[in-house]
Amino acid sequence: MGVLGLLLAIIVGISLGLIGSGGSILTVPILVYVMGVEPVLATAYSLFIVGTTALVGGIQSAIQKKVDFKTVLIFGIPSIAAVFLTRLWLVPMIPKQIMSIGSFVVTKPIALMVLFAIVMIAASISMIVPSKNKDNAPDDTDTLMSYNYPMILLEGTVVGVLTGLVGAGGGFLIIPALVILAKMPMKLAVGTSLFIIAAKSLIGFVGDMQGDEIIDWTLLGGFTLAAVIGIFIGIFLSKKIAGDKLKTAFGWFVLIMGFYIIAKELFF
Q1: Helix, strand, coil % in the chain, rounded to nearest 5
Q2: Which domain holds residue 32?
Q3: Mean pLDDT of all residues in the chain?
Q4: Number of domains in the chain
């Protein structure tokens, strides 16, 4: 793993530390386009990298009492089950060649990258558009929370399947769900989300270990360590930089990257 790879891995961590999301959005394209990792394997690597980095952030949030472990269980159990089964059964079931349009063949790697790009675009919109829920949500962690159990279970399952397919942490989906469905304060939602992301991402990676993939532990370990260093830098910088402005700028960057990936995979 070269110097460029290490620097980009640190940037992944910094983005997580600064805005609490975006790790997988950067990780998969870096692994595929910069480090030459095959797309299906890159989604597996992303689960390990994002899961480990989120765990570090989650532990710090727990120390600051910004994690609701009841919600981690309610949301996390269906999400974890879905991501594990998706990686174990659904991803291997996807054929190598999905369909053909004229002379253009839609392969499994192309389909996964396009799906990932769509997730990126959806994530970017949630970052660019101001969140009314965020603005209106109380910041007091003692606020009484109400749980819409069926919706939380359903959301957890959907996020789990999506995570399993594209290797995304899903924080941009989890946090709004917790704020809206559990009426959870924003700061508490961020800390709780980190634990959910960590659990389902790492267990999803374990689901991959059942296959015959050869894991490059040197690359994976080096990237993960650099990302963990980056998250501490990001947490430090977050105290100096306005989070809302940074989140909006990052959203535009992600939007451009999403359209770039679609154009590259489908037209070039």
Answers
A1: 75, 5, 20
A2: 3-267
A3: 82
A4: 1
